[in-house]
Amino acid sequence: MTTGSLHKKYNKWYIVICFNNDGKQTQKWINTGLPIPGNKKKAEVILNEKITEYESRKSIQKHKNENNELFCDFLSDWLEIHKMNIESITYAGYKRILKQVYPYFKKLDVSLSVLSPIHIQKYYSVKLKTIGPNTVLKHHAFIRSALAYARKMNLVKENVADLVEKPKKQKFIGSFYNQEDISRLLKLIKDSPIETPVMLAAYFGLRRSEILGIKWDSIDLVNRTLTVNHKIVPVNDTGKYRLEISDTLKTSSSYRTLPLNTSLYKYLSELKKKQDENKKFCGKSYNHAYENYVCVNELGNIMLPNYITKNFKRLLERNDMRVIRFHDLRHSCASLLLRLGYNMKQIQEWLGHGSINTTMNIYAHIEAESKKDMIDGIEKAINDSVDNELPAETASCIPKNQQRLVQRGEKSKSAELNSVQ
């Protein structure tokens, strides 16, 4: 039972609400803001409204404790509860998922207490008609995490999402450039606005967020090293895109220090001089908010993530190069390292993968190219063998793909002659 009373304090009317909070009697003082003279009745109205409000809260809480809360509302509540415990970019992703999950289960009018695997299974079946299995798996992860919290809080007896048959994950096969492609690309981007991010992606296989987060104090031009310890990511958690600057990288392995070769050392040294000159030339027009960052334009403005992505695509299209994603430069770097003979562990550390399995997945992407080299090698070995067996004058005038047939014919004729003799 919630009760309340009026009290005079500091020449104002105060309300004291008494209510039960987990078995303990609790008092809450509330300032009405009303002066004492002539406002008692108004204060009593506010008192009754507050008592009703607290009674309503208690009723809602009781409703929730009895597991009668709608599942869609529980998902919304859970996300807000965990907002402070997850990164903004993760929260934004969950918000987008909730926008699709909420209306479906709202229409279904199913409560948390009666939610069953078949409810979730049907939801996945409906979604698979419009979105891919990998996206549905993200919805599954969201729902499962929320229900794991419900299980922990004893709101449900089991996590029914664990009993659902998930769609099979589609393996994404990324594209990549070989060493000739990368060499051509680095020539094309010279003096372009995105030269710096493309160079860093090609040489180091850095993520776009890591490239944008590189600061000058993370580059040691004396010892010629670059340290990855900062990121900038685009986030849309309020309906509008914004840049989030953070020292928290994707995994602990993402924090790494990499050496600068001679060409990168010279390039970055010249870039630092140019930026210092721009600061002096632009004066007050220069944006000093990002002056410690490497990827800025002439006015000191940080490069936007989408700016890099769009201009990278345009550059490839204008120069008739095969269009790949900017992130595929990361795969290209892994491919080049593999071809140079470095092992999986070394490549994992270079790229900052949290798991060797991630590195192995990239290896699977480039395995097709390796197999092509293998079949080309087999063909060359066979043709070389045929060349050695045929007379020089014959081999020189017969196409390689017909030489084996000729060789077989010669052997057949020889066998016939031997049988006659």
Question: What does this protein structure show overall?
Answer:
The protein has 421 residues and is mainly alpha-helical. Helices cover 55% and strands 12% of the residues. The chain is built from 15 helices and eight strands. The protein has helices at 40-65, 71-81, 88-108, 117-127, 133-152, 179-188, 195-204, 208-212, 262-282, 305-318, 328-339, 344-351, 356-389, 392-397, 400-420, and strands at residues 3-9, 12-21, 24-35, 219-220, 225-228, 231-235, 242-246, 256-259. The strands form three sheets. It has a three-stranded antiparallel beta sheet with strand order 1-2-3, covered by helices on one side. β1 (3-9) and β2 (12-21) form a beta hairpin. α7 crosses α11 (328-339). The protein starts with a strand and ends with a helix. The relative contact order is 0.07. Residues 411-421 have low confidence and may be disordered.
Structural class: mainly alpha
Uncertain parts: 411-421
Mean pLDDT: 84
- Characterize the main sheet: 3 strands, antiparallel
The sequence of SSEs as H and E is EEEHHHHHHHHEEEEEHHHHHHH
Q: What best-fitting shape do the alpha-carbon axes yield? A: flat
In short:
This protein has helices at 40-65, 71-81, 88-108, 117-127, 133-152, 179-188, 195-204, 208-212, 262-282, 305-318, 328-339, 344-351, 356-389, 392-397, 400-420; strands at residues 3-9, 12-21, 24-35, 219-220, 225-228, 231-235, 242-246, 256-259.
Can you tag this structure with a few keywords?
mainly alpha, three-stranded antiparallel sheet, 15 helices, disordered C terminus
